[in-house]
Amino acid sequence: MSDEQRRDGESPEMKGEQPEEVKDRWTQGPDVSQHVNDSAVSAGGVGNSVGDDAETLRERQRLAQLEMMDRWIGGVLTEQRRTRRWKLFFRLMLLTIVLVSLTTTVYQVWWAESVATVPTQPHLGLVEVHGVIASDAPANAERIIRGLNRAWSSDNAAAVVLHIDSPGGSPVQSQRIYAEIMRLREQGNKPIYAVIEDIGASGAYYIASAADEIMASPASLVGSIGVIYAGFGFQEAINKLGVERRVVTAGENKAFLDPFQPLDENVEEFWQSVLNQTHTQFINDVRAGRGDRLADSPEVFSGLVWSGEQALALGLVDELASLEQLARAEVGGARWEDYTPRLDPFERLTRRFTQAAAEVLGVSSSSSPLRFESP
């Protein structure tokens, strides 16, 4: 074998060369080395690591890692400060919205009503009865009674007018309003009228019957003097679904209206007696308010709804007239003022949300199962 071949076959150990160490790409890669060199140059050191011992190189790598860590921590802190600033911004915006809402509510409830200009000319004092009559609805007894007393005590209100557009609602709320109208009517200081727009049925007609006179349009819907309870029976459905109903009561009839149990004959008879008694109260109060003007016909109290023209013939209304016609007859012009207390905007929003949720869930928002309401 020649000398050249022997030289080519020699191993690195035989040539006197040392094997290269395995490099860690995270601490000894080209990027780190370049960063170390740049840091060394910026610090006034030598930019080339050739000739440096291993300890010096490791120290420079450690410093480079610390510098990168400092940059990372700085970025994290900057992001946290930015996040805190946005949180603070949104909290301030929310606080501003709440303060503006509260200010608007206080203004409308206290200040706006107190500074509202009441006409100095004679006018009709309107009290609006719109929508379902219920304790949790705009047409509730407390609000309507407050409006009645405000219109009654106004010196320039020549008459109090119940402006009705309602299918009825709660028997208790209707009875409270009826009683207050009758109390004011007995004082005799000024007339009280009921003007029915599209519909004045059931509980709404209960209220109207307390007025001195009732007016309606020829096509208005009037009447529905009756009481209704409506529910569902799910006992067959629950059996088919294989669902077990668990109800624990104290009192054998406590759950007598449970829709998942069949309606017993005795229970149905009892519940019918409750409806009949409430219906009797309705009839007696309508007769007390209308007197001899009612026609002597059993159909008047059968729960039927009549047109305004038919209602006139049955004595359920006194005249076919509009609000404008009444105003011209009473005060010589179409002048009226709404005395119904304004609704709190937040309360109005809450009520709408509650009603929408009740409709979605298929439940009634009223606390009473009985209704003076048009079907």
Automatic annotation (TrEMBL):
Looking at the UniProt entry, the stretches that span the membrane are 88-111
Q: Which domain of life is it from?
A: Bacteria
Does the record carry Magnesium as a key word? Answer: no
Please give a single GO biological process term from the UniProt record: proteolysis
Note whether Transmembrane occurs among the keywords.
Answer: yes
Peptidase S49 domain: which residues? 187-327
Basic and acidic residues compositional bias, start-end: 1-26
Q: Which GO terms describe its molecular function?
A: serine-type peptidase activity
Q: Which intervals of the chain are annotated as region Disordered?
A: 1-54
Any Pfam family hit: Peptidase_S49
Return the SUPFAM superfamilies for the record.
ClpP/crotonase
Q: Which CDD domains does this entry report, sorted A to Z?
A: S49_Sppa_N_C
Entry keywords, A to Z: Hydrolase, Membrane, Protease, Serine protease, Transmembrane, Transmembrane helix
Q: What is the similarity comment for this entry?
A: Belongs to the peptidase S49 family.
Q: What is this protein called?
A: Signal peptide peptidase SppA
Q: Read off the lineage from the record.
A: Bacteria, Pseudomonadati, Pseudomonadota, Gammaproteobacteria, Oceanospirillales
Q: Which gene encodes it?
A: sppA
